[in-house]
Amino acid sequence: MPARLPLKLPRARGARRGTMPAYFADRVWLPQGWATNVRLSVDSDPGLLTAVQPNTVSDDAIRLSGPVIPGVPNAHSHAFQRALAGLGERAGRFANWRTAMYRLANALTPEQLEAISAQAYVELLKGGYTSVAEFHYLHHGPHGQPYRDLPELSWRVLSAARHAGIAMTLLPVLYGHSDFGGEAPEPGQQRFVNEPERLLHLIQRIQEGTRDQPDVQLGLAPHSLRAVTPETLHSAVHGFRQLAPTAPIHMHVAEQPGEVDACQDRFRQRPVAWLLDQTDLVDDGWTFVHCTQALDGELEQLARRGVTVALCPTTEANLGDGVCAADHFAAWQGRLAIGSDSQVCRDAFAELRALDHSQRLRHGRRPGITPRQGQEGPGADLLTRAGLGGRNALGQKVGQLVPGARADLLVLDPEVAALAGVPDERLLDALLFQQPTGAVRDVMVGGRWVVQARQHHAEERILSDYRTVMAELMPQLG
Q1: Which of 169, 255, 275, 418 could cysteine-pair with 217, CB 3.0–4.6 Å?
Q2: pLDDT of res. 92
């Protein structure tokens, strides 16, 4: 395997440092809907949109050859689990799947983690995601021994993201216990474990190493109420807020029935209710991940508090976790985001489709989530929700094509069968509610083209490294 890639990589094709390119598209999806003859001006360093001008003529701009939509933010990812995707189906219940995941986590070298993560990020980019919140809990060596450079594995996933060209919100995870009551970690969890002080030191080191990286945001992720105690949770959050007062905080919440029951036994409250009672902790910078077991009243309170809910419906279905009442949360104007979680699906539009279909199955009606007034249809509404919710979850200016936002965009191919002849007002429905093979032709992240003509700029090397790693790991994965 190659040595760790440098954190600061050369810029991708089509974006020289300090240039101010302009692009022109016949159709662009803007917050107000489809606009025609749009000029998009980009400051390639730091990769922001400086102007978005509909109804213009731009002979001097680079013409884009298809409809343009914003890239989708991915609000919840465990990149290393790409190596387990499709291989954990014989594990049965969630607890047994988790054992298989621990086996993978404890087998990985830093080089293998980087190679797997890079492959996952390439596939996410080709699937319409342009930024990712990496819920990162692999910190130490296989037996829990810290690396000489404490953030070694954080550098690896950051390097993988940089090489792939995806923007990242890195969320180092606080993980201390195997269950409620401060139970000792299991042997398979030793690589995850940190006390708040050491985790905050790790975050400080990453802050110092990424100050000049505009595509990197840092956050914090207390893993779950079973993996932290009230004392360590408060210590970590308050310490982190001194380092980064407005940065995102994520947590797995109300994911499985057993978790909810154990929380009630310990705290005499359900997880969402207990967390919302911590008024000095939870604010609108928080993202609760999954909430598949949350009650309607709890979801209404989350919406009122401004907490984002990140759903990963494909993974949640794969693990049999349940279905969040996302339609009710959306009706209360709650912020929804989506994520790829265990990487069994790396397609943003398939994830949004699964989200809506899960709600259709709950109530026997279509669409599953009622579009808000002013939206052209369910596809437009879901894409807008994922952009706005993801923007909050990642703490990045993403999800919309507006001045000041990062220049993250997708160019669609109107000639593929799924989109052929479809009028603008139906285009996003056609994109989301079928399997539109090859619909995303080009992908730009932060003013850099990372996918052109469906080919990622480093795809061959990254795939070659991934194949090597999988050949090495398969005997250990069984």
Answers
A1: 169
A2: 60
Task: Take residue 407 and report the two structure tokens written for it.
Answer: 């220049």
CB 358 within 8 A of CB 325: no
**Measuring CA to CA, which residue among 399, 407, 403 is closest to residue 19?**
407
Please list the alpha-helical segments (H only) found in 53-151: 94-107, 110-126
Q: Residues 177, 183, 188, 190: is their CA dihedral positive or negative?
A: positive
Distances (CA, A) of 181 to 47, 147, 185, 229, 423: 46, 28, 12, 7, 57
Q: Looking at the whole model, is its pTM more than 0.70?
A: yes
Buried residues in 321-352 as b, exposed as e (16+ CB within 10 A) = bbbbbbbbbbeeebbbbbbbbbbbbbbbbbbb
Whole-number pLDDT of residue 91? 58
Token pair 């189906």 is found at 89
Query: Which CA distances in Å does 209 have to 138, 159, 324, 419?
Result: 19, 12, 38, 43
User: Which of these is catalytic: 290, 328, 456, 457?
Assistant: 290
Structure tokens of 143? 């037996």
Indicate which residue of 321, 341, 356, 413 is catalytic: 341
Nearest to 383 by CA among 68, 153, 20: 68
Length of the chain: 478
Which pLDDT value is given to residue 58? 80
Q: Nearest to residue 217, comparing CAs of 150, 172, 160?
A: 172
Give the closest residue to 257 by CA, choosing from 239, 237, 271: 271
10-residue block means of pLDDT along the chain (478 residues)? 42 52 96 96 93 91 97 98 90 70 95 98 98 98 95 98 98 97 95 98 97 95 98 98 97 96 97 96 97 98 98 96 97 97 98 98 94 88 97 98 98 96 95 94 97 97 98 86
CA of 260: how far to CAs of 97, 224, 279, 414, in Å? 19, 11, 20, 46
Rounded to whole angstroms, how far apart are CA atoms 37 and 81? 42
Q: Tell whether the torsion through CA atoms of 455, 117, 463 and 216 is positive or negative.
A: positive
Angle at 406 between CA 411 and CA 281, to 5 degrees: 125
β-pair type (33-43, 48-53):
antiparallel
| 3-state secondary structure at position 344 | coil
**Known active-site residue 363:** no
List, in sequence order, every residue forming a beta bridge with 410; answer none if it has no partner: 69, 443
Tokens, residue 209: 């190493």
How many whole angstroms separate alpha carbon 355 and alpha carbon 353?
5
Count other Cβ atoms within 10 Å, centred on residue 1: 13
Whether 290 sits among the annotated catalytic residues: the reply is: yes
Which residue carries 């988790």 as its tokens?
Answer: 98
